[in-house]
Amino acid sequence: MSDIAAPLLAWFDHHGRHDLPWQHAGPGNARDAYRVWLSEIMLQQTQVATVIPYFQRFVETLPTLRDLAAADEDTVLALWSGLGYYRRARFLQRAAQECVARHGGELPRDFDALVALPGIGRSTAGAILAQAYGLRFPILDGNVKRVLTRYHGIHGHPGQGAVEKQLWQHADTHTPSQRVADYTQAIMDLGATVCVRSRPQCDACPLATDCVARRDGLTAQLPSPKPRKTIPERDTVMLVLRDARGKVLLERRGPQGVWSGLWSLPEAGDTDAAWRIAQQHAVIDDAQALTPFVHVFSHYRLRIEPLLFDGATAHPTIADNPHLRWCGAGELASLGLPAPVRSLLQSL
């Protein structure tokens, strides 16, 4: 057993998280591969507390891999709505469909077959094989990177190729042959609850004695931050066309770009263009400028100026366009909507 596995497992037995909803749902109370996989995808760039209600709602509606593969895309995106990074949800469903077509409706136990599926990288494949099947494979998510970076005193941003290669070597060395599922959960838990990004609880850490960052006073400096880049800003006008019954016009976005495939509000580059687009879809009399707000993506900031056209009368040609629909408030829950659009509509 590696030099960190024994103390880490002992810590996990007393302080780790043992009741997460994806941990014990298979035959004989074992971990179910579908649920492990779903949780791993949801937890990418998202905290456990945020993920839990989404996960529970998702598996209540789509309890098996075959259910996910057969589901309507709008259902999948509606269940995902609010988690962001919607590409993850599309890859999830595409991978499920490939599992049905090629692997008998199950996630394969072969590493190469797993990483060949859409949206499954090396760490996610390792987590599925280790936690669901008990096979010895290392993982390297953000929490694990932070633990290993500090423990070994590794400088340089963990996302850089050379640094990441070094971290993978350490991850593999430390992964034990026994209790692999518990070990992978333990090192993730340690990073999430003790070896946190700011103000780590070193006094409660089972690895503190040999941790280079703690010894050298580098816990605030490691992991090294990602080199900063200026985040560009963009502006858009969102058209809120609402008819006398309270229904709002939604437009399905194309296959490319942000929020691809989701139902959203029509957009324009400026107010004049917004009026022209609104008049193409409905008879309108007046518009009210609503309070602008900013939505932050990973690579840019979007400043949104909502423009409300109340009492609009729909042109009949809308019925001929499958990418446009008038929706009442009761229909919104069943559609995949971007989080800021859903919040905007709920505020009206």
Textual characterization of the structure:
With 348 residues, the protein is α+β, with helices and mostly antiparallel strands. The chain folds into 2 domains: 213 residues, Hypothetical protein, domain 2 (Endonuclease III, domain 1), CATH 1.10.340; 115 residues, Nucleoside Triphosphate Pyrophosphohydrolase (Alpha-Beta Complex). The strands form 2 sheets. Strands 1, 4, 5, 6, 7 and 8 form a 6-stranded mixed β-sheet that branches. It has a 3-stranded antiparallel β-sheet with strand order 3-2-9, with no helix packed on it. The mean pLDDT is 93.
Order of helices and strands: HHHHHHHHHHHHEEEEHEEEEEH
Fraction in beta strands: 5-15%
How many distinct folded domains?
Answer: 2
**Share of residues in helices:** 40-55%
Major beta-sheet overview = 6 strands, mixed
| Tally of strands | 9
Mean pLDDT, nearest integer?
A: 93
